């Protein structure tokens, strides 16, 4: 089977976008993995699938698969690319698009400067909803920052990591580091991702606070490894920093792939994320029959 696709990127977080508004391709987990494969497929951190409206008042459904082929709830950079895709493909003429994701309805808005702002909804701190299941034996977290100790690999000298846990529709564990360039993201990231306290695994963020309005961030993403940027991870880091009291309500997040601007007024207010969304190329690819 041969399918059409569009390659996109948002701050270097890259995507294969599939248009299933007319017909479903019915891809298997192995086929999503193949599309994401940088050697044998197209190459992407996530596969985004656009489907027709599932309900009145909603414009589209948007389905996200990580590079490992698993379906996940949320993808911030993907939401911006989704909005750019449906406009450029002529699937809508709207600037503000309501889209159903696995974790709820989000609202990307195409702005006059060519960027996209996404209302990502309110952050969730309720532990079972994240989900974060630390059991009974853990000491109570630091009340303000809600940092939790994770016991990791003692031999690798990363015994205890203090993380803030938050859901932006998907789970995040954020820690503050002195310097993201030397932070052990590739060593510690996978240990946090698979830590038993996170029953659905987790995205591991490493944030360096440069000022009250600027951070640097690297994220080891669940199911994808370190990416050049993670939109929901940027939202989670800024929310954690605001709760810590070290960040203002609007913050520029510097990633290896570009800048995202995140705003959060606190409490039940939604987190707003603004950043770029770019089409790289269009193509068609033959899916190996053995993978179906
Ligand atoms: N790159 C994304 C997040 C994609 C999903 C994530 N890896 C997860 O498993 O939750 C973003 O920009 O938010």
What does this structure look like?
This is Diaminopimelate epimerase. The active site is at residues 75, 230. It is a single chain. 15% of the residues lie in helices and 38% in strands. The mean pLDDT is 93. The chain contains 4 helices and 18 strands. It has an 18-stranded mixed sheet that branches. By secondary structure, it is α+β, with helices and mostly antiparallel strands. The protein is globular and about 50 Å long. It folds into 2 domains: 2-119 and 277-291, Diaminopimelate Epimerase, Chain A, domain 1; 127-269, Roll (Diaminopimelate Epimerase, Chain A, domain 1). The structure holds the ligand N[C@@H](CCC[C@H](N)C(=O)O)C(=O)O. The ligand N[C@@H](CCC[C@H](N)C(=O)O)C(=O)O binds at residues 13, 45-46, 66, 72, 75-78, 170, 203, 221-224, 227, 230-233. The site of the ligand N[C@@H](CCC[C@H](N)C(=O)O)C(=O)O has 20 residues, from helix 2 and helix 4.
The largest β sheet comes out as: 18 strands, mixed
Tell me what the CATH architecture of the largest domain is: Roll
What is the gyration radius calculated from CA atoms?
Answer: 19 Å
What binds here, in terms of ligands, is:
the ligand N[C@@H](CCC[C@H](N)C(=O)O)C(=O)O
Number of DSSP strand runs: 18
What name is given to the CATH topology of the largest domain?
Diaminopimelate Epimerase, Chain A, domain 1
Summed up, the domain count is 2
Catalytic activity: (2S,6S)-2,6-diaminopimelate = meso-2,6-diaminopimelate
Main location: cytoplasm
Enzyme class: isomerase
InterPro entries: DAP_epimerase_DapF (IPR001653)
